[in-house]
């Protein structure tokens, strides 16, 4: 995962894992959180409920979703998805194999430190794909993880206190 995400992980690290209630968004929103919260409109935050991909494509939506997944101890799914997105941008053939191996060992391999929940067939197909890596070698596994997050974590995120508190914070600003 690239260096830009490390800082965000550090900022999100101070969230409590015991509750998804969060009123201090300084740890969730990347870059100058007070300014970010002022710039985040209720309309933007409400649009995150339109679709999972809208949420993932919004910088603050992604940060809030990551914070929520941390409360559920399942942030590895999002981290894997982001690692795959970053991997697809790899232009150096020399880096392709080492990046693929690193992602496989961190997220896909059995007993990986941040193992994602995928079925045996997908795991084995990905293992074979990584032997001769291409930009699409993680596509099936990434698709499964995306689908899992969309069907399972995303609806819970929309009902979470993190999301509802963030929405009310943006609405309060308008009054």
Automatic annotation (TrEMBL):
Record keyword Cell membrane present:
yes
Q: Which residues form the RGS domain?
A: 51-167
Alphabetized SUPFAM superfamilies for the sequence: Regulator of G-protein signaling, RGS
Cell compartments where the protein resides? Cell membrane; Cell projection, Dendrite; Nucleus; Perikaryon
Tell me what topology the record assigns in the membrane.
Peripheral membrane protein
InterPro entries associated with the record: RGS, RGS_RGS8, RGS_sf, RGS_subdom1/3, RGS_subdomain_2
Name assigned to this protein: Regulator of G-protein signaling 8
What organism is recorded for this protein?
Formicarius rufipectus
UniProt lists the gene as Rgs8
